[in-house]
Each structure stands twice: as C-alpha cells, then as structure tokens.
C-alpha cells in the first residue's frame, strides 16, 4: 500500500528515535542511581511491601514475581545498556522484527519500574515516556519507510500533551486567565534552575507576554500539527522553542525534552530517503495496534472536554494512552522543609543543629540553584510536595528521618552533603518549615544570597531512634 508509508520522514524518524533513546538512557540512569534508598528492600517505600498488597493486573511488573535489589539494579542497568545501543543505532543493523523487539525491551523494563515506583514515579513524564516509547516500537527501521499512521499517532500524542496542558491552565488557576501566573511561578516552582532568579525578576509586562505566548502555543498551535507542510513543521518549531524556554527557566526532569523529541518527529528534513516496501505482516501489526490506541484515546479526550479535567492520569495499567498537564494551579508562596540533626545529648532549641543539604531543592540561601534536568532528583521533588502538605510525605518522611539517624549510606547519597562525618550520625533529627522568597537585586549585591527565608513552624519534632544507646 503506497499510502502506508511516508518516505519523506525517514530522517525525522532517525532523529526522533535517537533522541528518544537518550531520554530512555537518562530515565534508566536515574532509576539505577536512586532506587536503593527510595524503593529497595530498606527503601523509604519498599517494593516488596508494595507488591504484597497490589495485584499484578493493577501494576504489571517483572517485580511482581520476584524482587531483590540486585534484580532491580540489573533491570535498570540493562535498560541503560539497551538505550545506549539504540542511541548508537543498533536497531538499524537488525531485521525489522528484531528492531521492533529491541525497542520493546526498554518500554517493558521501564514499565516494570514505574508500576512499582509508587509516589516516586507518580509524575506525568513517566507515563509520557512509556506512551511515546510504545508508539516508537511501531516506527520500524531502515528496512521500511516510516508508517503514516504511526507519525499521526505521535502528532496526536503531542497534541494531547500541549492542548491538555493549555486547557488545565485555563480551567484551573485564575492567574493563567489574568496572565499573572509567572509573577510567582519562577519563584515557587518545584525545583528552580540557575536562571530562575533572573526569570523571576523580568519586568511584569514581559511575564504577561510569556503567559500569552504559552496559551497560543498550547491552545492554538497544536491544531496546526495536522496541517500540510511546511505549516506543521513551523508549529513543531514553535513548540520546541517554548520547551527550550522552559528548560532555561527551571528543572522539570525530562518533561520538556520528551516534548521536544515528539515535536522532532513532525519536522520534515531535506533528505534522499531509501525506498523499501513494507511487508504485509508489518502493515497488519501497525494498523491493528494503531486502531487499539485510537480507540483507547476516547478516555483522554473525554477528560480534556470535561469541566472536571484532571492532570497526569493513566487510564490503563500499561500506560498506553494517558492524559497530561502541569501547573493547573500556581503557588503564591514558597515553603521549604529544612532537615537538621544534632549530636547533643538533649534536643535544645539553642543546640548545635546542623542542616542537611539537598542536591537540587533550595536550602542554604547563599547556594545558587544548579541545572539537573533532564536528570530527575526524585527526593528533592517530593520534598517540594512535602512542604505543600505533610500528607504528601506521610508514607515516607518518618522513615527518611530514621535513615538519617542510622547513617544509611544509600539515603545519604541522595543528598548533597551530610553535616556529620561517616560513622557518627546525629542523636536527633528534626525538620522545620521555612518561607523562601527570592532576594531583590539590591539584596543579592549586599548579601550574596539568592534566597531570603523566614521560619514558619515546626514540621517534625526532634526525633531519635527508638532504643538508641546513650553515647558518651
């Protein structure tokens, strides 16, 4: 069938696949380096405890049959290896069916991780990577030109990501309709980047322009994805430019980058593509799976048109078709949980309390934020939610404090610095809630601090290990 393939998108497929493999690599690397403290056998929310109460059909995963930290590490590092092989183009050296199976491996491995990841993997970009990765299985390799229907599915996914995010903003916080959300967002976002302070201090009229441009990109431009070229390429370029602006303004894991990857599949590059007919079995598989995905799309569509639209919801346990969105409401005030420990015999208010430093989240007012995205600091992100409400931290924060008291190496590796030397943990740990605000230009020059913080209240009272022996 001549209509089945689009040879002009041969190079677009190549760029998309290599970029997607890079995102996969970052995701698996994040899992490999952080899982032991978060999900391991002695993690803050252990996988074995989770699979005991959640059946396989609700959370399909390799770890439903067996779990060990060694097996999890093996899956994560295997995912890194396969992703690196895909970046290098191994799929182009295999027969068509072999390439499809190779692309299926990272999807299955990452699905196994996400489905037992609990609160640490509850972010929308996890489902977005899985949905994108599943569609990518159908793209094929150099033996065939890219199927038209798969290219459409990628545009349909990009449309839902952008248009859904635009709708949730218009229906959510009134500041999006008043064009004032960015008066606060750069300061109160989950994890600011090195340029966020400067974005916050842009003139307010420019903030209005930012919001208005975002509305156009998310509510108008997505419809242009389905128009003929070169209009579709221009629409994709506008989305890429918007996402790169967001990359500069904060740390949003790989959310912006996976959106850029999707937009790259829309761009038609000048090339001299090879021509090859698609085998019948391949056409049958692609059309059957595409029909299934389009059928399942009725659920996110119903969500988008609903007045009670929700963000970042998976409608099936395989994360095949999902709904997306971000920042339907924007905080006006930034709170941060500051964790401290002391080696004093008794937890006095005026004692020698020393602050634990996190890698990404604000702590020391003089420490400038760093760029971590697309790498995802999961604990730092959840600390932002913990500051919004203790309910977000209920399942894990007490255990986190316990691990600090135990001088747990895996947990301490998630932090930037412990104020206590190895082998000499604190006797007590506490947490306090502070209000943070960006300093002004004058305050920055005078103090060198990018943040100013004010004590709000106690978050966790001084805590020690039960039955801990006295030390002289």
Largest sheet: 4 strands, antiparallel
Helical element count? 19
Quick one: overall form? globular
Question: Major sheet: order of its strands?
Answer: 4-3-7-8
Instruction: Give the SSE string.
Output: HHHHHHHHHHHHHHEEEEEHHHHEEHE
Radius of gyration: 24 Å
Provide the low-confidence segments as ranges: none
Mean pLDDT: 95
Please state the structural category: alpha+beta
Estimate the strand proportion: 5-15%
Euclidean distance between termini CA atoms: 82 Å
Helix percent band: 40-55%
How many DSSP E strands?
8
Could you give a short description of this structure?
With 472 residues, the chain is α+β, with helices and mostly antiparallel strands. The chain is built from 19 helices and 8 strands.
Give an account of the 3D structure.
- There is one protein chain.
- By secondary structure, this protein is an alpha+beta fold.
- The chain is 49% helix and 9% strand.
- It contains 19 helices and eight strands.
- The chain has helices at 10-38, 47-53, 69-87, 96-114, 124-137, 148-171, 174-177, 185-188, 196-200, 204-219, 231-249, 255-264, 280-296, 298-305, 378-388, 390-393, 397-405, 409-412, 441-447; strands at 313-314, 322-323, 334-342, 354-355, 357-358, 415-417, 428-438, 451-463.
- The strands form three sheets. The chain has a four-stranded antiparallel beta sheet. Strands 1-2 form a two-stranded antiparallel ribbon.
- The protein is globular.
- The mean pLDDT is 95.
């Amino acid at each position: 069938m001549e209509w089945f393939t689009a040879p002009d998108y041969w190079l677009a497929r190549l760029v998309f696949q290599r970029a997607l493999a890079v995102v996969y690599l970052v995701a698996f690397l994040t899992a490999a380096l952080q899982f032991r403290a978060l999900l391991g056998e002695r993690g803050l929310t252990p996988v074995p405890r989770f699979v005991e109460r959640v059946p396989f059909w609700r959370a399909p995963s390799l770890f439903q049959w067996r779990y060990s930290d060694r097996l999890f590490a093996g899956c994560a590092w295997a995912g890194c290896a396969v992703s690196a092989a895909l970046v290098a183009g191994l799929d182009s050296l295999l027969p068509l069916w072999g390439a499809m199976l190779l692309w299926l491996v990272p999807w299955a491995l990452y699905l196994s991780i996400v489905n037992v990841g609990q609160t640490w993997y509850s972010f929308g970009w996890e489902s977005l990577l899985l949905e994108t990765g599943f569609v990518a299985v159908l793209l094929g390799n150099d033996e065939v030109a890219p199927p038209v229907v798969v290219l459409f599915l990628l545009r349909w996914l990009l449309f839902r990501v952008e248009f859904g995010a635009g709708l949730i903003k218009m229906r959510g916080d009134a500041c999006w309709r008043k064009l004032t959300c960015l008066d606060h967002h750069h300061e109160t976002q989950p994890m600011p980047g090195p340029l966020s302070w400067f974005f916050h201090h842009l003139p307010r009229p420019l903030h209005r322009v930012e919001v208005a441009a975002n509305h156009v990109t998310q509510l108008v431009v997505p419809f242009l994805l389905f128009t003929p070229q070169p209009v579709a390429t221009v629409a994709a370029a506008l989305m890429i430019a918007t996402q790169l602006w967001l990359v500069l303004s904060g740390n949003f894991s790989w959310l912006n980058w996976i959106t850029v990857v999707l937009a790259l599949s829309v761009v038609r590059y000048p090339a001299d593509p090879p021509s090859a007919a698609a085998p019948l079995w391949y056409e049958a598989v692609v059309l059957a799976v595409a029909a299934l995905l389009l059928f399942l799309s009725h659920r996110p569509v119903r969500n988008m048109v609903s007045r009670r639209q929700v963000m970042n919801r998976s409608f099936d346990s395989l994360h095949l078709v999902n709904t997306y969105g971000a920042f339907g409401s924007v905080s006006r005030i930034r709170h941060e949980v500051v964790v401290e420990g002391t080696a004093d015999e008794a937890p006095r208010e005026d004692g020698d309390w020393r602050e634990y430093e996190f890698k990404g989240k604000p702590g020391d007012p003089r420490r400038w934020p760093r760029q971590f995205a697309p790498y995802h600091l999961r604990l730092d992100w959840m600390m932002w939610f913990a500051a919004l409400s203790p309910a977000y931290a209920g399942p894990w924060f007490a255990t986190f404090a316990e691990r600090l008291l135990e001088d747990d190496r895996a947990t301490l590796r998630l932090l930037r610095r412990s104020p206590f030397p190895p082998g000499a943990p604190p006797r007590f740990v506490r947490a306090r809630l502070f209000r943070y605000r960006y300093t002004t230009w004058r305050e920055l020059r005078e103090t060198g601090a990018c943040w100013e913080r004010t004590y709000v209240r106690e978050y966790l009272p001084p805590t020690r290990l039960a039955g801990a022996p006295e030390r002289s």
